[in-house]
Design a protein that fits this description.
Its cofactor is Zn(2+). GO terms for molecular function: aminopeptidase activity; metal ion binding; metalloexopeptidase activity. Keywords: Aminopeptidase, Disulfide bond, Hydrolase, Metal-binding, Protease, Signal, Zinc. By secondary structure, the protein is an alpha/beta fold. The chain folds into two domains: about 1-35, no CATH class; about 100-395, Aminopeptidase (3-Layer(aba) Sandwich). It contains 13 helices and eleven strands. The protein has helices at about 5-20, 25-35, 60-65, 100-105, 110-120, 130-155, 215-235, 235-240, 260-275, 290-295, 310-325, 340-345, 375-395; strands at about 45-50, 55-60, 75, 170-175, 180-185, 195-200, 245-255, 275-285, 300-305, 330, 350-355. The strands form two sheets. It has an eight-stranded mixed sheet with strand order 4-5-7-6-8-11-9-10, with helices on both faces. A three-stranded antiparallel sheet has the order 2-1-3. Strand 9, helix 11 (about 310-325) and strand 10 (about 330) form a beta-alpha-beta unit.
Length: about 400
Amino acid sequence: MKTITLGALVGAASLATALSIPSTLRQAVSQLASGQNPLASAERYLIELAPSQTQWVTEEEKWQLRRQNINFFDITETPDLATTTSRSTVRFPSKTAHNESITPLLKTLDKQHMISDLTTFTAFHTRYYRSDYGRQSSEWLLAQVNHTLSSASKNTSTSTSTSSNFTGHVRPFPHSWGQASIIATLPGKSANTIVIGAHQDSTNLFLPSLLAAPGADDDGSGTVTILEALRVLLHDPKILAGEQENTVEFHWYSAEEGGLLGSQAIFSAYQKSGRSVKAMLQQDMTGYTHATLAAGEPESVGVITDYVDPGLTSFIKEVVTEYCTIPFIETKCGYACSDHASASKAGYPSAFVIESDFKYSDKKIHTTDDKLEYLDFDHMLQHARLTLGLAYELAFAKFE
């Protein structure tokens, strides 16, 4: 890590003002130049490092833990999540059952959509959840999801009699920190809900309010992967007509990097309102294959096996085998490692897939170098195939 001199920081502060860099960045640079820490704050947060293991920390101490690869829940706003809730037991299918409907849909997945969307998404200086950029990027993503839903309805209105029944919709889920989460809903015959998730925020673990965080892989890749799966899912006339057994939701969570804040808020609300979530799949980091291939290992989908629902995870393996053209590999990521953990904490069955064996996952994340150029969009298509296959299969599954 390069050393930055005080003189350079003072010069940077002057240059920031001259170039009309946003005030939040100018303020952070000025604080650095005067010897202050822009992350320093008297406010403290309650985090959970393991079940029943909590401690109060500052914002900077949170980032210190993350720099040490220590994950946690920030439970400051959701201290009672799951404390009185028993875990839901769901029986999942033993094998896939909708191959004839899904296989044609797989052919319409298009990596060019993902490339285009991710190019714009990573152009934001950062998607740090407390920043103006984080708010702006969320608003842009909301518009993209809304466009996907409205286009599906318009494009089929002249060719299918059922399209007029389409009631899919999207809404922001607001948070106190400014960057909203996003929920797209495809209502089914029942309120039983299947959730597909990714997180939209990014961060640079060294001065998140100042430094760039393109977040191409973490988790821009998951964000556009599930968006592409949603686009293609809406090609199916039965989905457009709401004929599936279960409601399907696509979630883009805010503030994952700050301690799974957005997903906790959503699943806490669902728990309190008695929502019946039958399954939740998280797609976090879907695009990096270089380390796997450099190690001489085959490209694969990493299926997380710790802190997940075993039944749902077993069915996901069936879906990978049936609908992907690469195998899966079992791997682990630890406690509170992504937003699926919030669903589990609320008592809902959850699972998590990642780009590779965890030891070969992207090490450029949380830096200025988490860029588009390092991603394998063909691999991201494999994750989109999995997402589409699972969403469709479980949309039509009959749960007891």
